[in-house]
Design a protein that fits this description.
Blueprint lengths: L1 E3 L3 E5 L5 H7 L3 H4 L10 H11 L6 E7 L5 E11 L4 E9 L9 H16 L4 E7 L3 H9 L3 E12 L2 E11 H7 L2
Parallel strand pairs: 5-6
Antiparallel strand pairs: 1-2, 2-3, 3-4, 4-5, 6-8, 7-8
């Protein structure tokens, strides 16, 4: 499987990517706004990915630059539901901090949305973000997502419950937005 963007492409995660994920997910700049506890290590990340390998409702993807195939980020899709034609973009990030601000995150998100609606035939795609992550909120709005509301204590980070804001985009909005 290969999901194409303009500047990036996404492929299924392979074991060789796990070290990169462990490296990125120890950086405060990457995990500040994720429900990822501090102190995660390669073994925990490997167990997490290995546990999802045979679950058709989940998908781990590695984001790579088109120009040279360099892995630069990660996308984790969950709650793939073929009855309700929906999925959740649970984690999406550019891990290489020096590559942020170049539109690669937006390109990644747009590629995932296109994959969800055109290849997976979804009716609804959701994601959530920490209330303080205004940058992510602005990106999601720019890509067509609509606010649904605050999910109180829906996440947990370092032992503390946190609120998450839920957003979604429907097929008709995707079609209208991408005319």
């Amino acid at each position: 499987m290969k999901i194409e963007g303009e500047k990036v492409y996404l492929r299924e995660t392979v074991e060789a990517d796990w070290d990169l994920f462990a490296y990125w997910e120890t950086k405060h700049e990457v995990t500040e706004f994720f429900t990822i506890d501090e102190g995660r290590d390669l073994m925990e990340i490997a167990d997490e990915i290995r546990g999802r390998a045979d679950d058709p409702s989940q998908l781990d993807l590695t984001v790579c630059l088109r120009k040279d195939d360099t892995p630069i980020g990660r996308v984790y899709i969950s709650r793939i539901d073929h009855h309700y034609d929906s999925l959740d973009i649970t984690r999406i990030y550019v891990g290489e901090v020096g590559l942020r601000g170049l539109g690669l995150g937006e390109d990644t998100l747009r590629a995932v949305i296109r994959f969800a609606f055109e290849d997976m035939k979804c009716e609804r795609v959701t994601l959530d973000y920490m209330t303080a992550n205004k940058r992510a909120h602005n990106l999601y709005l720019k890509c067509g997502f609509k606010d649904e509301g605050c999910m109180r204590h829906a996440g947990k980070k370092n032992g503390s419950y946190i609120d998450l804001n839920l957003m979604s985009i429907l097929r008709e909005e995707y079609v209208q937005y991408n005319r």
